Fold this sequence. Notes:
By secondary structure, the protein is α/β, with parallel strands linked by helices. It folds into two domains: 10-197, Rossmann fold, CATH 3.40.50.1170; 220-318, Rossmann fold (3-Layer(aba) Sandwich). The protein contains eight helices and 14 strands. The strands form three sheets. Strands 2-1-3-4-5-6-9-10 form an eight-stranded mixed β-sheet, with helices on both faces. Strands 11-12-13-14 form a four-stranded parallel β-sheet, with helices on both faces. A two-stranded antiparallel sheet has the order 7-8. Helix 3 (102-113) packs parallel to helix 8 (306-318) and helix 6 (234-241) packs parallel to helix 7. The longest helix is centred in the N-terminal third of the chain and has 15 residues, at 71-85. The radius of gyration is 20 Å and the shape is globular.
Amino acid sequence: MANSPLPEVRRVVVLGTGGTIAGRASSSGDNIGYTAGQVDVADLLGSIEAPEGIALLAEQVAQVDSKDMAFDIWQKLAQRCVHWLAQPDVAGVVITHGTDTLEETAFFLHSVLAPAKPVVLTCAMRPATALSPDGPQNVRDAIAVAATAGAQGVTAVCAGTVHSAVDVQKVHTYRLDAFASGDAGPIGYVEEGAVRRVREWPTSSSRQASKALSAPGPWPRVEIVMSHAGASGAIIDALLREGAEEPVRGLVLATTGNGTVHQALEAAALKAQDTGIAVLRATRCTSGRILPKPDDRLRDAGALTPVKARIALMLELLGK
């Protein structure tokens, strides 16, 4: 059977969630004293010209400062991605997002969607009211990636660089080029509206999709506890004593070095594990991965950062 021809005009759907890219400040010279999530995504697209053969469609999914990102927004966002990606004339989806938790949202979507089409998160380090905002160029670059033939998987685009959802991390508090991909390096670059790819597009097997897209709240509670000089097990002990309506089901230890944990914190974590709490180690180093040892008593998250390991563990517990 012959393949159906692609429609002459394809759509890129832009889903807005708020963030700095949609922020407003009282002065054009103020790049930090703004209020995030003030400008509608349709307005963000107002001055952006779509690539030839592409029509843009905007939809507001949420309007938040991304530091306040929540599970219900993630779920709704994933559901809207599924809806739009299923439309034959949709080339891909772009998501405007705050920088603070962009890597977490990207990894969540990567874990539950496994899209054959591109899902591209983008952002800004300056608000929309800035004298020289970076948001419009980032959105334009993200649209270029979403419209690229053969593109797939969940990526993030910032300052002309395309990152995989698995690798992307925010590494700077202020610079416009605030993201990096660690040892793996970027997928590619957007140059004058064209994508120059230097490695393969990301893929995912996504075994948790159905439950994550439909599960009612609350989701499994997983907390992150950091290991450091002078650490104790007091935080873990307190979490286990809490007796809250939403008990802790998992712990991620943000470890030093190659998955090492302060002896006092490790003792408390092993005690928690013995009571049925799922425990996972993730290095707090920005590059590298944990290399496991035969005598390890606590599982490790490999190359995942603590925040991404938390999402992975949360989805694992959701599937049980």
